[in-house]
Amino acid sequence: MPRFPSFTLQILHWANRREGGGVEAMVFTWDPYANPYDYHLWTINVEYRCSMLVFLFFVAFSKLTNHVRITSLCIFILCLWYLDAWHENLFILLVLIAVINQVQAAYSASTDSRTTQSRDKQANGSSQNLWRNVLVDYVRTIVILCLLS
Q1: For all residues of the chain together, what is the average pLDDT?
Q2: For residues 39 and 33, is the Cβ–Cβ distance under 8 A?
Q3: In the chain, what is the greatest distance between 2 CA atoms, to the nearest angstrom?
Q4: For residues 30 and 46, what is the distance between their CA atoms, to the nearest angstrom?
Q5: Helix, strand or coil for residue 117?
Q6: Looking at residues 54-63, what average pLDDT do you find?
Q7: Which of 13, 54, 19, 49 is nearest to 34 (CA)?
Q8: Which residues have C-beta within 8 Å of that of residue 94, sequence separation ≥ 6?
Q9: For a Cys-Cys bond, which of 81, 93, 121, 144 suits 117, CB 3.0-4.6 Å?
Q10: CA dihedral 76, 81, 83, 87 (to 10 degrees)
Q11: What is the tens place of the pLDDT at every residue in 17-49?
């Protein structure tokens, strides 16, 4: 934090650092250390931007089917990975995990309610669970790779 000899100069420096309406509105800057007065607050603008991205994704894709939603999430994750936007990628990966868990819970609830199924349907359901587990493991691997890179 820059120090000035008088309180007036300190306040004037703080007021000149205001971007977009004030220091509290610095969440729209891409410089994580834009605020010289509170370096530890760099996470606030990252969390705010990523949360807005998650909320906008849910608003935009809420009316679509689960298959389209999961496919668009995977494409979006790959685009974010290519752009090296790891903050946003981690948030969207967590959305993908939540959507997959929601689909798994709905599927298991529907299969639990049906007690009289043929063997063919049960075999098909187990293969679907296998592919869902493979997809969940793939997403977890991507999260770990993002954290390590």
Answers
A1: 75
A2: yes
A3: 83
A4: 9
A5: coil
A6: 90
A7: 19
A8: 143
A9: 121
A10: 90
A11: 665 445 455 555 566 556 666 666 667 778 888
Q: Six-digit token pair at 120?
A: 């063919």
Contact (CB, 8 A) for 49 and 87:
yes
Structure-token pair, residue 65: 């089917």
Please give the radius of gyration of the chain, using alpha carbons only, rounded to the nearest integer: 23
- Other Cβ atoms closer than 10 A to 89: 22
Phi/psi of residue 138, nearest 5 degrees = -65, -45
Angle between helices 119-148 and 66-82 (to 10 degrees): 20
CB 86 within 8 A of CB 145: no
| pTM to 2 decimal places | 0.57
> Quick one: which of 23, 43, 22, 49 has its CA closest to 35?
23
